[in-house]
Amino acid sequence: MKQIVECVPNFSDGRNRQTIDRLSAAIESVSQSYVLGTHVDKDHNRSVITLVSTPENVASAAVRAVATAATLIDLRGHTGEHPRIGATDVLPFVPVRGVTMDQCVDLAHAAGEQIARDLEIPVYFYERAALRPERTRLEHVRQRGFEDLKSSISVDPARAPDLGPRRLHENAGAIAIGARPFLIAFNVNLRTSDIAVARLIARALRERDGGLPFVKALGFELQSRGLVQVSMNLIDFQRTGLAEVFAVVRQKAASMQVEIAGAEIVGLVPEAAFDSGAAYVPFLENFSEDLILENCLNKRIRGS
How far apart are CA 4 and CA 184, in angstroms? Predict the structure, then answer.
């Protein structure tokens, strides 16, 4: 595979392993399409699947997964910590090898056209694939989530989809489809049940609130563990990396007499973003050499 595109669909189900297995099977039913990793979180009630494929096949694999999710996931009864607008909430395309960002934008648009046409799911384009400048940032697309979008999509022109019907799919909601560079999703769990602590730290981290550049952050409760979590997206790891955000979380938590309970990387990270000697590594609950994208690529593709 001289040309490789990564796609990282986020599905609004983290509690039914059979659903995740069927989504993975749907992806791998497409030629030259491989699941490199799956991250499942029952508190968020969300799963992240990392797939790679060729430019010719990646959109087909992605659409097949979205169609499968639409038959298996019903947002009308969904509960979970993570904000969402769809059964497949986000569908980003990422250039890995021999592929340009412009090609990934074209792939995102092609996938969106098929999803809107064949599945009747309203589509919003974000990041590099955005058709409206105000939709570049994902949080501006998602806003207050499924319930709010359900009431506003048909009456508010600012909430009209880029493609598809001006109504939510009955059970699958809507979908945000994008093209972007590598993004690192990094969570740090705190040994407290006080959600205010996580939210204060998240606010200190967020770029939009004067924190670290290229960092998005939210605070969540992990009710099943009696902990809270600072959940971060590092949208340019070369400008702000894992070690830097971990140091800030650790320092802010210590100032409130709160210990770090653990950390996790959601999905995969490029080798250039990971330092095996960094302070966050001993706290990683899911540490494995398979967290590194290049390791997974070599193992999975060569073994197929």
Answer: 18
